[in-house]
UniProtKB/TrEMBL annotation:
Domain of life: Eukaryota
Enzyme Commission number(s) from the entry: 2.1.1.320
A single GO molecular function term of this UniProt record: protein-arginine omega-N symmetric methyltransferase activity
Organism of provenance: Calycina marina
Subcellular location: Mitochondrion
PANTHER family named in the record: PROTEIN ARGININE METHYLTRANSFERASE NDUFAF7 HOMOLOG, MITOCHONDRIAL (PTHR12049:SF5), PROTEIN ARGININE METHYLTRANSFERASE NDUFAF7, MITOCHONDRIAL (PTHR12049)
Keywords from the named record: Methyltransferase, Mitochondrion, Transferase
Chaperone among keywords: no
Protein name: Protein arginine methyltransferase NDUFAF7
Name of the top EC class for this enzyme: transferase
Source taxonomy: Eukaryota, Fungi, Dikarya, Ascomycota, Pezizomycotina
A Gene Ontology BP annotation from the UniProt entry: methylation
This protein's GO CC annotations: mitochondrion
Family: Belongs to the NDUFAF7 family.
Amino acid sequence: MDSLIISRLFRQLFAHRPCQQLRSHSSLPYRIASTCPTQQVRCYAAKARKTNDEATTRNESHWQQRSDIFSSDMTEEYKKYPMVTADQLRGRRERPRKVKMLTRDFIEDSLYNPSYGYFSKQVVIFTPGESFNFNNLENENEFHMLLGQRYTEFEDKLDLEEPNETRQLWHTPTELFRPYYGEAMAQYLVSNYKISSHYPYHDLTIYEMGAGNGTLMLNILDYIRDHEPTVYERTRFKIIEISSSLAKLQAHQLIRSADSRGHKDKVEIVNKSIFEWDQLVPSPCFFLAMEVFDNFAHDAIRYDPITEEPMQGTVLIDTYGEFYEFYVPQIDPVAARFLRVRHAATGGNYPHPLHQGRILRKLKSGLFPSGNLSNPEYIPTRLMQFFDILGKYFPGHRLLTSDFHDLPDTINGLNAPVVQTRYKRRTVPVTTPFVHQGYFDVLFPTDFNVMEQMYRALTGKLTRVLSHEDFLKRWAYVEETETKNGENPLLTWYKNASVMTTV
């Protein structure tokens, strides 16, 4: 039933003029006018269509852009509905109704709920088959064309088994550039392990969070086994995976791959959220988080342009599953702590929605009295909590992380995410995070200038941030990914990504 509803919903979405323009997008995924204390904001909503069929009334949805004509005052419902968290919803099999949630809890629930979350049920990670022979390709354009062909073949094969118009398929640099990408990470890990004071007295222990298909793990272990056999003897690899389906896939990778069978005793897969971690790991270790920060839940904050007081974003979900965004002056302890730590760690030097001077803002408010708040700022509260976990339970860790510092097609706001889905093999961005839970990727950029300072403040460790290209120039065999005309997709395809390491 759910897939039928979603297919109908997406067809309605594509009927809108802005969405018709999106058909030109590449088929390759990448992945208030009120002065009262509580402010309600209009957003995309899935509004139930009432018919004589009660089941249809409950489940059938249309996409509608909210407008003043369509606007409903939900203030009374907001007062009555209970506040719930993503943790409280983890045991639910159906999406919640008649509740309100913090923005970060809504995003967390949408992405990670075990029953209907995006990563739990919808995601398929593209595997290109045999590795690309870049040296035999004329240029990057030929690589792009070949990649498109393999995407089509991969999805055609999936459709033969089970057709799916709303399949959420995306790729990672680990898969596109295997084994070269994983080998670069392995070289970094082995070199830094061997020059540390821990070698040879401690094992090379590697934790990876969000390991996807397990390809990076296999490529790293293959490289260490083949090139550093003495280090391999002391290597231990532990995957922390919140998704049960991906944890099973990673285990199957180990069993069915002939090259990986020798690694079985080296690997442990822990099927739990990193935020549930409660075991002290006192020994030295490396912690890998590759393209993980972008899917950490964020809070939404808006500011009064005159008083500069922050207000925190929440969302109300009504009887029909329609979403209404509210901002309230009560900042919860997690978001309040983030604002304090950020200010202290950066000395107050960070981007802010109220970039104009106070006098100019007062003048604009007098000329154009709208009562509106500032544009939203999306703050990475979950990322702060991840740094807390590292500092508390992994005191001897060294972090290796890569993620996007800039993203196209983001929604409105500072540090705002891309919210997108796939329909009939086309990527469809939308303009709000409040969309049907589980069918949309919510992907945030990372401000490494700010988060590097916060990581240092919370863990007491020093760091280095490099561009994705500069890091790979140092650690990859870049000759292996160079095309005949000298272009190198490994170095140029992720210009909008950075790498942060503990030093």
